[in-house]
Specification:
Elements: H1 2-25, H2 29-54, H3 61-88, H4 101-110
Helix pairs in contact: 1-2, 2-3
Length: about 110
């Protein structure tokens, strides 16, 4: 059980590293936010699960489950709220961005079309 926990913890830390790398390589704040959120959510869940498996004798498994649930519910929601706020204050998209659904929805609302 310890070896499986160590392997899952290692995979989680690789996802966390890839999330950090995505923050450096993505062209604008919106892509960075998505790369960081997806990778850190999965990386944190795997890391915590592996830690719980590696230390099965610990009585903190219930706390780790609560932490995992907290990450599942709050990380995507906070990222979404930050991305909408960045869009509304006018932070520009990358030049290679093909489609902006939020701007199209705003134009429809302004024109009275729903």
């Amino acid at each position: 059980m310890e070896l499986a926990g160590a392997i899952i913890t290692l995979i989680g830390s690789i996802f966390l590293f890839l999330g950090a790398l995505g923050l450096l390589r993505m062209p604008d704040i919106f892509n960075r936010m998505q790369a960081g959120t997806k990778a850190t959510t999965l990386g944190s869940i795997l890391f915590l699960t592996g830690s719980a498996m590696a230390h099965a004798e610990c009585t903190c498994t219930g706390k780790i489950v609560i932490l995992i649930l907290f990450i599942i519910f709050t990380n995507p929601l906070s990222s979404h709220a930050l991305a909408r706020a960045a869009h509304f204050i006018g932070i520009p998209l990358a030049k290679k961005t093909v489609k902006d659904d939020l701007a199209e929805d705003e134009k429809k609302e302004e024109g009275g079309q729903l």
